[in-house]
Design brief:
The complex is a heterodimer of chains A (about 110) and B (about 160). With about 110 residues, chain A is mainly α. Chain A has a single domain, classed as Helix Hairpins. Chain A is about 75% helix and about 0% strand. The relative contact order of chain A is 0.11. Chain B has about 160 residues and is mainly alpha-helical. The chains are: A mainly alpha (about 110), B mainly alpha (about 160). Chains A and B meet through α1, α2, α3 and α4 of A and α1, α2, α3, α4 and α5 of B.
Chain lengths: ~110, ~160
């Protein structure tokens, strides 16, 4: 079984710090793409969550590999706290926008006042 | 090739794959549900990085809180029963070029800088007591500010979302 796995996955490189960082870079880019291209405000929010998660992966990866001890993990805890607050506020605003404009498409909402 | 590597590649594929479903899917519900797998994949990556407390926090807050909020948002702002749950995109080509440049340059910098021979620092068996102690000593002020921020955010969200009149 072990040799089977070695045969199957042996060509993949051994996991280093850079692998975690590249995962986080891909997540960041996908989040930015979602923020820039989506019309629906809630999908823009999902993009923001992806970006925050990628930042968290970076924090934790450096905390494990970079000798940053647990400071990086504490920073990630604060990022999660702020993400929760941000999601609550942003969804409240989105609901309000929906009640006022009957749409949540960010390209159609161009006025601050009716 | 160890088990660690295989598990890492599994979680990396789950995370990035479901994140691309979030970004590219036309259906909002599919996007919201694949966000679930992205969060779980990130939690798995935290476990691989020996951040057990953070992994549990990720599952509790992101999956149990933020994702539920987002699902509520989707269902309250789109007429789920009336089919119209698709969504459009804007400026996809310039955004794709920009994002490809960002991803390529970030990955290149990461790989050229940290690609070889980094050893992880010493293994802590569990991180929860240490994080709790740090929150009560070195990070006491940010901790208190975060609690005030959460309170203000809760009150503000309730104020904003309430229907007037």
């Amino acid at each position: 079984m072990d040799s089977f796995f070695k045969e199957l996955f042996g060509w993949l490189p051994h996991v280093q710090l850079a692998h975690f960082l590249i995962v986080s870079a891909l997540l960041f880019s996908l989040g930015i793409y979602g923020i820039v291209t989506r019309k629906n405000a809630i999908l823009v929010l999902m993009g923001v969550e992806l970006v925050l998660n990628s930042a968290n992966i970076n924090f934790v990866a450096f905390s494990r590999y970079g000798g940053l001890n647990l400071d990086g993990q504490v920073a990630a805890v604060f990022v999660i706290i702020l993400a929760a607050a941000e999601a609550a506020i942003a969804l409240a605003i989105v609901l309000n926008i929906y009640h006022r404009f009957q749409t949540v498409n960010v390209d159609e909402i161009s006025s601050l006042k009716e | 090739m160890e088990l660690f590597d295989i598990v890492f590649y599994f979680f990396a594929i789950v995370t990035v794959g479901s994140a691309s479903v979030v970004v590219f899917s036309r259906n909002i519900m599919y996007a919201a549900f694949s966000l679930l797998f992205t969060f779980f994949g990130a939690a798995g990556i935290y476990v691989l990085l020996h951040a057990d407390f953070l992994a549990v926090t990720q599952v509790l807050i992101y999956v149990g809180g933020i994702l539920i909020l987002i699902l509520f948002g989707v269902m309250l702002t789109n007429r789920v029963v009336n089919v119209d749950i698709k969504t459009g995109t804007l400026q996809t080509v310039p955004a794709a070029v920009l994002v490809a440049v960002i991803a390529g340059s970030l990955s290149g910098v990461f790989y050229s800088t940290w690609g070889t021979g980094d050893t992880p620092s010493s293994d802590a068996l569990t991180t929860t007591p240490a994080i709790g102690e740090m929150l009560m000593t070195a990070y006491l002020l940010p901790f208190e500010i975060a609690s005030v921020v959460l309170l203000v955010a809760l009150v503000g969200a309730a104020m904003i979302a309430r229907r007037k009149g």
